[in-house]
Amino acid sequence: MAQGGAEDQNRRCVAILSACDLVPPAPAATRGRPGGDLPRGHLPPPARVPYHARVTKEDDSTLLQRWQAGDEAAGAELFRRYYTSILRFFRSKVGTQAPDLVQRCFLGCLEARPRIREGANFRSFLFGVARNVLLMHFRGSRRDRDRIDFTERSAEDLGASPVTLLAKEREAHLLLHALRSIPLEYQIVLELYYWEGLNSREIADMDGTPEATIRTRLRRAKLRLEKRLGEIAETPTLARETTTNLESWARKLRDQVGTG
Hints:
- The chain is mainly α.
- It is built from eleven helices and no strands.
- Helix 1 (3-19) packs across helix 4.
- 35% of the residues are buried.
């Protein structure tokens, strides 16, 4: 994209995120620069997003239609609705680098807005953009870029920033460590399934993968996670307690990553 077009997209992203109350006031030194109102790495934590106090009754498809027709307020509502989920998606994998990737994700949505097909599931589309941004981030930070096999390499293998402080209880800490040490594609599908409530069809819609393939990936991912929990737990009892109550600990970890 030409520099002018990129700056325009960044300003539009700033405008939408500002409407969502997701952008803090810019430091005086940066105000007025192209994109300066959205300092690199300075998106605020999700606790500042007062979304639940003003939920609209309109569903995603209605808001998407309005946004594609030029209603920026509808786009702001969609971004506000999923901001915490997208921040959580990145935070569990790249830690403190998450805010930059959130911005890239929303910019990607702005660029793709005219190409979103009619009747598309916006949530699947958004997480599809987030997944692409994440994979591009890891490829861009390594020399072997296109040769990375994300069904074999984990976030820890790829040198992701530590995020251990996001988990509080020992079971949650163990689960987060295990998730980050299994193949990245497995971590992604498990978190989308357990944390965000996406079913296999919605996950498949993210990039056109056959639904049967996603169901198989989910089964394999859970088995790999359970094996990893057994390998890294301090005691067999801790591994068993975490595995037996996996859904419960997944929900607790979800909340801690989303607000930590």
